[in-house]
Amino acid sequence: MSGLRSVLLERVADPVAGALRRVPLSARLAEFRADQWDDPGTLRPRQAGRLSDLLIHATTRVPFYMRCVRGLTPDAIVADPWGSLASFPVLEREHVSEHLDELTCEMGRGTMSWSTGGSTGRPVRLRRDRRYLAAALATTWLLYEWAGIRRGDWHVKLWGARRDFSGRDSLAGRLTDLFYTRATLDAYRMDAARRREYVRFLKRRPPVCLEGYADALYELADFIGHEGLAVPSPRAVVTSAGTLHPHMRARIEEVFRAPVFDRYGCREAGNMAGECERHNGLHVFGETTILELIDSEGREVGEGETGEILVTNLWNFTMPLIRYRVGDEAVRGAARCGSRCRSFDIGLGTRPCAERRAAGAAGPILFSRASRAGRDPVSSGATDRCSRRAPSLASSVFCATPAASRSTA
């Protein structure tokens, strides 16, 4: 049944919804699937072309960059897009908050407003468009495919972002969740009674994919283990929204008896990296993201060195985020998965999340923002292609290793 639903979703529902919303998810996902196994030598020129287009757009049409980046001509950008990128200033959260309109260029692509969750302080308002949204959704679904998850597979999320619960109790929200075979459990409401409810729910409706905040999944797994309970094994567990430490991964895999696929992303730039079935690190999605690691002097760090993460998204022309400081750190590592791709070993600090703690969550909450200070519905495997070579979308790799961090945000 899930196979038929997957076909219907991809061949009927997605194209129809994409046409109605003018979000070309199907086309973008097909493009990313076809390109994911290109070697780095093929990916790099494609990245350079997209980067050139973005930087030319920013310096000729976006007021903020037109004011801050001077003397950089389109010809110079085309000749050396990587050197041109380095000449852009680091974009801070404060810049985005204070210069929202200056950072915006109306492209006629259905501008949408959204904001960060505020876990690093005051929420930051942002803008995006349909072109960005299609690329972001395609990236997310490609990550699921790396974990062996197909469209239409029963999917349960243990989630805590309040906006993601908005509208889920409406008739339209319930019908949408029913059609896409998904449910969301509230990670903020995790006392012992609610955990037992979640265990009963997972037994009653065993998911193919169990996804959630890394700390919330760890808390639930630890509760199940300590109580001597058991739940059916999903095909994969997907973690995000926090630092997945080795002991957390081990406990989650022990209790759920399923492999864990970690991912890295943020509200500002979407999913930026994810694990393949080799579990040798998080591959950076080179089709959508350029990620730099810099030291305190603004220079790229060398192998084995820690640097701050700067992200450039290649698809959001309505509000370009170029060299945006997300507030995390990572350690540059060596190539893995049999590819020639350079790698990063992520080593994020931890902090209690005041927002979730105030909501009544038990235990320490580990969040990945390291370098700066609704109701829930309870009441076949991944291929081993990565052994041949890592996806070209993975222009870099992260893997979970502790590293020094700055203040928490």
List the helices and strands and how they pair.
Elements: H1 2-21, H2 25-35, H3 40-61, H4 63-68, H5 74-79, H6 81-86, H7 93-98, E1 112-115, E2 125-128, H8 130-146, E3 155-159, H9 171-179, E4 182-186, H10 192-204, E5 209-213, H11 214-226, E6 236-240, H12 246-256, E7 260-266, E8 270-275, E9 282-285, E10 289-294, E11 306-313, E12 324-333, E13 343-346, H13 354-358, E14 394-398
Parallel strand pairs: 3-4, 3-5, 5-6, 6-7
Antiparallel strand pairs: 1-2, 7-8, 8-9, 9-14, 10-11, 11-12, 12-13
Helix pairs in contact: 2-8, 11-12
Write up what this structure looks like.
- The protein has 409 residues and is an alpha/beta fold.
- It has a single domain, classed as ANL, N-terminal domain (Rossmann fold, 3-Layer(aba) Sandwich).
- 35% of the residues lie in helices and 19% in strands.
- The protein has helices at 2-21, 25-35, 40-61, 63-68, 74-79, 81-86, 93-98, 130-146, 171-179, 192-204, 214-226, 246-256, 354-358, and strands at residues 112-115, 125-128, 155-159, 182-186, 209-213, 236-240, 260-266, 270-275, 282-285, 289-294, 306-313, 324-333, 343-346, 394-398.
- Helix 2 crosses helix 8 (130-146) and helix 11 crosses helix 12 (246-256).
Radius of gyration: 21 Å
**Broad shape:** globular
Overall residue-averaged pLDDT value: 76
List the helices and strands in order: HHHHHHHEEHEHEHEHEHEEEEEEEHE
Q: Can you tell me the CATH topology? A: Rossmann fold
DSSP strand count: 14
The largest beta-sheet arranges its strands as 4-3-5-6-7-8-9-14
What is the top-level CATH class? Answer: Alpha Beta
Poorly predicted spans: 339-409
The biggest sheet amounts to: 8 strands, mixed
| Portion in strands | 15-25%
Q: What is the rounded distance between the termini? A: 45 Å
- What name goes with the CATH superfamily? ANL, N-terminal domain
Number of domains: 1
CATH architecture: 3-Layer(aba) Sandwich
Tell me the structural class: alpha/beta
Report helical residue fraction: 25-40%
